[in-house]
Design a protein that fits this description.
- The chain is mainly beta and 207 residues long.
- It contains 2 helices and 17 strands.
- The N and C termini lie far apart (49 Å).
Length: 207
């Protein structure tokens, strides 16, 4: 399902609270408005439901503030709280701010991103600087994404959301257990029964 379809419905639902404004919440954006004479809309305490392509996963964005520049295809969200839910999956992601690029079906979280929840019977915690959530590819990607599962700290570049398993990928994936043993692999899978498997060869780091 396209973000655009949901946004059309959103604009009708929140039409009564949208208003024209020249205020964009921070000084750098305010300067842009003065320079380009743009008009923006703004809405408070908004919830947006989005669907992943060819998947039962649902993404809900709750934001204290949503606004956009005129003629742009972006929605800017502030203090977003994102829920990703599906069969045996519930993830909560929070960040300081982000962007919904509805022409690309991508949600971009800018900084201080934290992840928590439960996937396939496993409790998950995580943190990252910036995260892209691609609704078409059904994945989360980041240059620096650290996930904690059981006794493992897993550093990855990508999390792929499949119905029957969650796949963690990297070049390589770095693993560290609670005893300090560090290993490398290319992929880790969390199966639907809660089993954490390492299908690729593990390379033990020597010190």
């Amino acid at each position: 399902k396209s973000i655009f379809v949901y946004l059309v419905a959103l604009f009708f639902l929140i039409g009564s609270v949208l208003f024209l404004s020249s205020f964009f919440l921070n000084s750098s954006s305010s300067e842009l408005i003065k320079q380009n004479n743009e008009i923006i809309f703004e809405a408070k305490n908004i919830s947006i439901n989005l669907g992943f392509k060819e998947s039962d996963f649902i993404l809900e964005v709750n934001s204290s503030m949503v606004n956009s520049l005129k003629d742009e295809k972006n929605l800017y969200v502030y203090q977003p709280k994102i829920d990703i839910s599906g069969k045996n999956t519930f993830l909560k992601i929070i960040s300081n701010k982000g962007t919904i690029a509805y022409d690309k079906n991508i949600v971009q979280l800018d900084n201080k991103t934290e992840i928590s929840g439960k996937v396939n019977e496993k409790d998950i915690l995580g943190k990252a600087s910036k995260v892209d959530i691609d609704l078409n590819k059904r994945n989360l990607s980041s240059d620096e994404l650290i996930i904690f599962i059981d006794e493992y700290e897993i550093s990855v570049k990508e999390i792929i959301l499949n119905e029957d398993e969650i796949v963690f990928k990297g070049s390589p994936v770095y693993l560290k257990d609670n005893k300090g043993l560090e290993t490398e692999t290319s992929i880790v899978k969390l199966k639907s029964n809660g089993e954490l498997i390492f299908p690729s060869k593990l390379n033990i780091k020597n010190y």
